[in-house]
Amino acid sequence: MASPRVLAVIPARGGSKGIPRKNVRFLAGKPLIRYAIEHALASRRIDRVVVTTDDEEVAHVAQVAGAEVLMRPAELCGDAVPLDPVIHHAMTTWEATRGERFDAVVTLQPTSPLLTTATIDAAIERFVAGGGDTLLSVIDDRHLSWTSRDGAWIPAYERRVNRQELPPHFRETGGIVVARRECVAAGRRLGARIDLFEVPARESVDIDTPMDWWLAEKLLNHRRILLRVDGSELIGLGHVYRMLMLAARLIDHEVLFVCREDHRLGSDLVRQSFYPLRTIGDDAEFARIVAEFAPHIVVNDILDTEADFVAGLKARGIFVVNFEDLGPGSRVADLVVNALYEESFPSEHVVWGPAYFDLRDEFVILEPRPLRPAVEEVLVTFGGTDANDYTARVLALLARLPGPAPRVTVVLGLGYGRLDALTALLAGLPLQVELLQNIKTISRYMQRADLVFTSAGRTVYEVASLGTPMIVLAQNNRELHHVFARSENGIVNLGLGTAVTDAEITAAYQGLAGDAAMREQCRTLMRRHDLRRGMTNILTLLFSRYEAFRAVEHP
């Protein structure tokens, strides 16, 4: 059958007991029936698209979508009427009234919204090439199954093996039926020569129940999301942990991590978390991965980006989200999340502040413990490389304080490079110190501490979520711009640590440690902020902005 004329018939009744108004109900932003109509209209192999219905609302929606409509006679509208006479009526009525004649009829069910135009075309091409009478869409549904015989349950398989070792067992999806015109009659569409066309599992969904609807909506909202992030001894792993937490919330989507190959700490952490990962040596490799993966969304957690880099992604129609970005690329991105920084000039695409801090799960599940009357335990944690070695400086100051010394826990970052010198220092100090490095969970140490010394980065938010009083020493000028670490949020921030004297650090500690009421006030101010909803807020904003972007760019 060379270049046959093909009629597509989409049967769509108005009534549906399982899901009321199913065919016109909105699924992922548009009426269910519109998916089948749009896919059929886009086909290279279909000449005419006709919806047959008994319902005026269905007819209206179908016409708006661009389909032709035929209203069924009363005798073809009952619940018990099979599809064969409905399809036959549509074909013969159209041919008689419009003077057209078709070689083949393809039935497309509106309840299979995930069927793509490419699959429909491939099925029709297979039918034409095969020269058969009827082609049915199927899925390989092999499983260990059972049946009954003479009142007893018996296996419907010969050997009990793994599913993939079972022989193929094809189940009709109902999504596509292609038949030669001569095989379409009031009581049949199946000819003598049957061919089966296997469709992808994703496209086999047939909506019959609310659970089917839920699954279809999930799949239709599925997106490809590329997470560009790095982690090393120098920059730490905070960015990678954030993207891993984001990925854990993106279970409905396809996620790909991309890391620099020379930043092994970050890529190894992603690999150990079992997420898909590609490593790159230069921008050209990244561009190739973007072209291959074709993401809908790219999330950059690599600090300051260049405008050309972000513009290049946007030129591909990609929605671009940047975290902690103060570079030129932040002005070009679609969404920038700067939880640590305050925006000087408000921009609609930039959000900042504690509402968008991505608190790690280990903190979300913990609650503050009651404050003790006196400071008995101090946590010292400056993370990363602790470039200014505040750790050693604070320990030396604590050792010189009069009176009983508190217990001290020290948590070092991965990049701390003076461990031998610190160990030697501790050997000569009258302090009880627990020294830890490269630990997976730090929250319990923050929770049990009475006071924390830390730098002005992400740790401030984490400590605040537990209401533990803290003294902050900024490592660099960038940290001075972090918005949350200030007195109105209950945080004693001494500013740039290299510009602060030992006497000022000692006075701050003595003032906070010696005043239980002040520590309680610090906790009250910190706990005003609901830091546990940060990731939820980020995801809600990200996808709402993405859908708005998609409506404009790809209506």
Structural commentary:
There is one protein chain. The chain is an alpha/beta fold and 555 residues long. It is 32% helix and 22% strand. It has 17 helices and 24 strands. The strands form 5 sheets. A 7-stranded mixed β-sheet has the order 5-4-1-6-10-7-11, sandwiched between helices. Helix 12 links the parallel strand 20 and strand 21 (433-437). Helix 1 (32-41) packs parallel to helix 2 (56-65). The longest helix has 20 residues, at 534-553. The protein is elongated, with a radius of gyration of 32 Å. The two termini are 37 Å apart. The model has no long low-confidence stretch (mean pLDDT 93).
Beta-sheet strand percentage? 15-25%
Radius of gyration of CA atoms, rounded to a whole number: 32 Å
Straight-line distance between termini: 37 Å
Residues in helix, %? 25-40%
Mean pLDDT: 93
H/I helix tally: 17
For the secondary structure, the number of strands is 24
Instruction: Label the overall shape.
Output: elongated
SSE-based structural type: alpha/beta
User: Which segments are poorly predicted (pLDDT under 50) over 5 or more consecutive residues?
Assistant: none
Report the sheet with the most strands, covering strand number, pairing sense and barrel closure: 7 strands, mixed
User: Numbering strands along the chain, what is their spatial order in the largest sheet?
Assistant: 5-4-1-6-10-7-11
